[in-house]
Design goal:
Length: 512
């Protein structure tokens, strides 16, 4: 039961803080390719003729389709649309050094180390099996034929959504594709970059009225074996059961054959980062019983009393959203990380819409009851019409911002975001902090995974909420301990998980 030795998560977290990471020079000649390409498996084309949902992005990010809705079995066209909107290639940009294929969701360094796999029973257009999704040619490749949903049911200790879902999407991370640039921090990025994809996937599922839930409690080795992963290099991160039916699972299957297919080498050589493998191992669950025991609710938050001025959010009501929000499809196709913010204001209504609709709850096995959260949002407001400049705490339950300290903190924001211009120029910076001790006490080392993942999912929703209103956003990295100091005493003892900058973009000529 390594998962309970939580000094492992602390060790990883402390060793991968900024500043403190060793200096690292990029070996461009050894840059890994951003795709997993099976060299011997035939592609199965995914149809692309599904009409757009035309649901406003703000509605899509905030609505959650209950798992108990009527029978819902997505067909291959719908599945294809969900894959495209979460991990598809949405833009190709030429550079002197080549072409970058940008994707639907933001990813650290545009390195795209997250892959999607599908485990399905027979659905319209696709036979039961285990498939890999290849964004490079928008195709599936068959890894196993037959209904393997029972394997997932066992691995998750019969999690309720899994037992009813006709399809489960699995996200994985291939560490080297990210650690090439970010070294051991790639384990943090595994969850951030899965999170942004999952934000898109949840929004797309909601737009097409498909029940979806994030499952993070599973026997790691069972899911990794099901996908035939070389676990020193690639591991499963999350499962997303989609749809709802009584008749999906045939039987609990105990034994599965080993599979291994040839894939294209990622680069000339790969460098191993043992810290990543050790935290992954230490946060793994090893039996169905351990999974069931693990999945028992979210710790309750303990927050300092409200003592600052409160600014209730001023967001648009449901019936007005169609007028102020682009559709989800338009938003995802337009989305990109803002490379330069205009040092100008956004309105409090725009900020309220982003915050309110991004935090309406996530169906997840680590957020029980629905609406619970592991992360708190601290803001630096550089320029928002209607509220003073300053540092704020977002009271999610009160739908209000509490002013912690008033002042112009653009300089601090720029510094805290690793000395980059982006957070200093943005209108608002949203920092995700949590009580990591409390999270680890409850969930063991795996709490580290889910806390980073939740921040990544909400961060991904912030992107969609911003672009849905014609604004810009960018994920950012940060100086861990200085962020906590900046927001203290309120943030005393907390740990930083993620940072997103919001504002209006300058259409810059600079490359991304
Ligand atoms: C978690 C996360 C952290 C990021 N950190 C930075 C950062 O520190 N600086 C930066 O310029 N861009 C950052 N980005 C933006 C990525 O570089 C960008 O997502 C990637 O190049 C893909 O481009 P796109 O988002 O425009 O599609 C971050 C993105 C994410 C998702």
């Amino acid at each position: 039961m390594n998962n309970r030795k939580t000094e492992e998560a602390w060790n990883y977290h402390n060793k991968t803080k900024h500043p403190g990471m060793p200096t690292h020079y990029l070996d461009w000649a050894n840059q890994p390719i951003p795709f997993k390409i099976y060299t011997t498996l035939d592609p199965i084309e995914i149809p692309t003729d599904l009409p757009p949902s035309n649901v406003p992005a703000l509605t899509a990010i905030s609505n959650n389709v209950p798992i108990t809705s009527d029978e819902c079995i997505p067909d291959l066209r719908t599945l294809g649309r969900l894959l495209y909107l979460s991990a598809g290639i949405t833009k190709k940009v030429n550079y002197p050094g080549g072409e970058i294929h940008f994707r639907a969701a933001a990813c650290t360094g545009a390195l795209y180390h997250i892959d999607l796999y599908i485990v399905t029973r027979d659905i319209e257009g696709l036979e039961a099996g285990v498939y890999h999704f290849g964004p490079h040619d928008f195709s599936l490749r068959t890894l196993r034929k037959g209904n393997f949903l029972g394997v997932i049911m066992s691995a998750t200790g019969e999690e309720s959504a899994i037992t009813k879902a006709p399809i489960t999407i699995i996200t994985t991370s291939t560490f080297w594709r990210n650690s090439w640039k970010y070294q051991s921090r790639a384990f943090r990025h595994t969850f951030w970059d899965s999170g942004t994809i999952l934000a898109n996937l949840l929004a797309a599922a909601s737009a097409y009225k498909i029940p979806a839930k994030i499952i993070t409690g599973f026997v790691d080795s069972t899911i990794n074996n099901l996908l035939g992963l070389d676990t020193n290099r690639e591991v499963a991160v999350s499962l997303v059961p989609l749809g709802d039916t009584e008749k999906s699972i045939q039987a609990k299957s105990e034994e599965i054959e080993t599979i291994s297919y040839e894939t294209m080498p990622l680069s000339k050589k790969e460098i191993d980062y043992p810290l990543i493998r050790s935290i992954h191992q230490a946060s793994s669950l090893t039996s169905e019983e351990e999974v069931k025991e693990w999945r028992t609710g979210t710790p309750e938050s303990t927050l300092p009393e409200i003592s600052g001025r409160l600014f209730p959010l001023d967001y648009n009501q449901d019936k007005e959203i169609g007028q102020i929000s682009k559709t989800l499809e338009e938003t995802i196709l337009k989305r990109g990380s803002t490379r330069q913010f205009a040092q100008t204001s956004i309105t409090f209504k725009q900020l309220s819409n982003i915050l309110y609709h991004s935090t309406s709850g996530i169906h997840a096995d680590f957020l029980i009851p629905f609406g619970s959260t592991l992360n708190y949002m601290y803001l630096i407001v550089n320029d928002v019409e209607g509220i003073p400049k300053g540092a704020y705490f977002y009271h999610h339950n009160e739908n209000a911002l509490e002013l912690l300290k008033e002042g112009d903190f653009r300089g601090d924001a720029g510094y805290l975001g690793l000395g980059q211009d982006i957070p200093g120029d943005a209108s608002v910076d949203v920092f995700f902090l949590n009580d990591l001790n409390q999270v680890l006490e409850k969930f063991g080392n795996r709490g580290y995974r889910v806390a980073e993942l939740e921040a990544g999912i909400i961060g991904g929703k912030l992107y969609l909420g911003a672009y849905g209103q014609g604004l810009g956003a960018s994920g950012l990295t940060f100086f861990d301990d200085d962020v906590v100091r900046f927001f203290s005493p309120h943030a005393e003892g907390k740990s930083v998980m993620f940072l997103v900058a919001l504002g209006k973009s300058v259409k810059s000529k600079s490359s991304r």
